[in-house]
Amino acid sequence: MRSSRRVVFTLVALVAALIMGTGTAGALTATHTGTVGPDDPSMPVVFIMPPVCGAMGVTPVHYEVIEFLHPLEGTHSFSMTSTDGFASAYLYEDSFDPANPAENCVAADNTGEPIEITYDFLRGTSYFLVVFDDTFAQLGGDFEVVVQSPDPIHTVGLVDPATGQWHLRNQVGAVTTFFYGNPGDVPFMGDWDCDGIDTPGLFRQSDAFAYLRNSNSQGIADIRFFFGNPSDIPLAGDFDGDGCDSLSIYRPSEQRFYIINELGANNGGLGAAEFSFLFGNPGDKPFTGDFDGDGIDEVGLHRESTGFVYYRNTLTTGIADNEFFFGNPGDRFVTGDWGIVDGTDTPGLFRPGTITFYFRHTNTQGNADSQFAFGIPIWLPVAGNFGLD
Ligand SMILES: [Ca+2]
Ligand SMILES: [Ca+2]
Ligand SMILES: [Ca+2]
Ligand SMILES: [Ca+2]
Predict the structure, then answer these.
(1) From CA 381, how far away is CA 166, in angstroms rounded?
(2) Residue 123 Cα, ligand 1 centroid: separation in angstroms?
(3) 260 CA distance to ligand 2 centroid (A)?
(4) C-alpha pair distances (Å), 375 with each of 17, 259, 332, 370
(5) Measured between alpha carbons, how far is residue 388 from residues 142, 168, 196 in Å?
(6) Mean pLDDT of all residues in the chain?
(7) What's the pTM?
(8) What are the residue ranges in the chain where pLDDT is below 50?
(9) Is 297:312 a contact under the CB 8 Å cutoff?
(10) Distant-in-sequence, close-in-space partners of 327: CB < 8 Å, separation ≥ 6
(11) Which of 58, 138, 158, 223 is most buried, most CB within 10 Å of its CB?
(12) Which ligand gives the minimal distance to the CA of 239?
């Protein structure tokens, strides 16, 4: 049974790869602006020997820090312009200590407009771009940094709820298959260890535990904790923008979201909810995603009976910020940054009747922008950046 399925899969994956092409791996662009002035803290200047830092000096300079907490691994590039070219920049790896700014400085530029730094970020590591006033006058000014970072490469997978077998696709449609969990577990994906890669999580309604794993391979849970009510729906997302996913709760009986920004302690209980709010109608299925591209996940609801999709751009009670129809009754909904890779998540769905995934590339009403055949009707869809070759 299993081996014949695998053959079917390979063929389906090949066809899908042909339909989808080889993906559009590129770069995400974001712009950071700020103003360095007398109110900013100061640190001793570090001499620059482009493209690296040299020895620490003594002259104090005003600075501002742009944090990149657990960014994706790969090449990041920075291009900065500033008022009369007053600013230069340092890049720090792991941590930045303004009392010892020669430490952990891995790149720097002071060669004039535009200031440019390119650096290969490591997986699971934080980076700090320090913009400082490189003039004797220390009058400061405005700056703008354009950051190019790697694509998150969101793809989809399917989980067989009868066997606990996971089938995760990479960007070119190749499928990685492994067993994780028991029959009946509720599957989801998230980045539990903040390395930029989404890996499996399960909610086992029989013991009300969540079981999280940090790699896309067969094995036991790396962390497990008591999640709560068997009827609660787990929602994985980064609800505070720190680069780490946590598990929040949607309680259908109350139509209430409980937002939690820490994972439960291993073998312990779930942490207290930071806050909760009412949203939704009875029967609607919750989902999470970053629908306004600000780096923080928010929540929405999908009405499977009609395909009605609605969400808010903030984690608060209120009317929907956006709503539209996508899909047919019975479709199973996911979200991700696909098609137009711009940091904004949009809907996708798995239609059991046609064993096909359909994707919308904008949060607007309309037909699917892309699609491919994949899977078996009873399988459940998941989505994320799986980090699979
Ligand atoms: Ca991870
Ligand atoms: Ca978080
Ligand atoms: Ca957001
Ligand atoms: Ca997008």
Answers:
(1) 10
(2) 10
(3) 9
(4) 14, 32, 13, 17
(5) 41, 8, 12
(6) 90
(7) 0.77
(8) 1-25
(9) no
(10) 302, 307, 309, 333, 347, 349, 351, 358
(11) 158
(12) 2
Nearby residues for ligand 2 (ion, Cβ within 5 Å): 238, 240, 242, 244
pLDDT of residue 72: 80
Between the CA of 239 and the centroid of ligand 3 the distance, in Å, is 8
The pLDDT of residue 11 is: 35
pLDDT of residue 9: 33
Q: Out of 2.60.120, 1.10.10, 1.20.1070, 2.120.10, which CATH number does the structure's domain 2-25+152-384 have?
A: 2.120.10
Coil, helix or strand at residue 270? coil
Q: Which DSSP letter does residue 206 get? A: T
Local structure of residue 305 (DSSP, 8 states): T
> Which of left, alpha, beta for 98 (phi over 0: left; psi -120 to 50: alpha)?
alpha
How far is it, in rounded angstroms, from Cα 168 to Cα 357? 13
Ligand 2 centroid to Cα of residue 363, in Å, is: 23
pLDDT at 19: 36
Nearest to 119 by CA among 88, 93, 86: 93
- Which CATH number, 3.40.605.10, 2.40.50.320, 3.40.50.1970, 2.60.120.380, labels domain 27-150? 2.60.120.380
